[in-house]
Amino acid sequence: MLSHLDTNNQPTMVDVSDKAVTSRVALARSVVYLPPSILAELQNGEIQSKKGPVFQTAIIAGTMAAKKTSDLIPFCHPLPLDSCKIKIALNTKHKVEIECQVKVTHKTGVEMEALTGASVAALTIYDMCKAMSHEIVIESTELIQKSGGKSDYVKKDQPV
User: Coil, helix or strand for 141?
Assistant: First the structure.
């Protein structure tokens, strides 16, 4: 049975009242392809656009989004986040990797907050760079690992 459906097959928020409060951490990653014309604008780890510093703005937007996840995803519990850290860097394939790690001490996990933070940071990069090119591609957003709660998860082939 899906956790967001009740016994009558109706959508519902999961009842976490009987769960234990534990430390929970989730790490999500989004990958963004930027065409060479945009990558050529990279200086000292940042791209300056007409709208301002791209990566710095994406970090702020991703953090704000993680904090607002329950306003965006219907059955997410509002959570008082302990931490939200976003890192943005070029990977070895010259693509932008956004990692969003979220921590909370609560009865439910923060996977959706980490995924939302990484996703909105990627969308912000697109928005801030689209005047330079529309060939930007948000290639993926995925959960890399989570800990705390009922079970831990680490995506295969990922460094721990």
Answer: strand
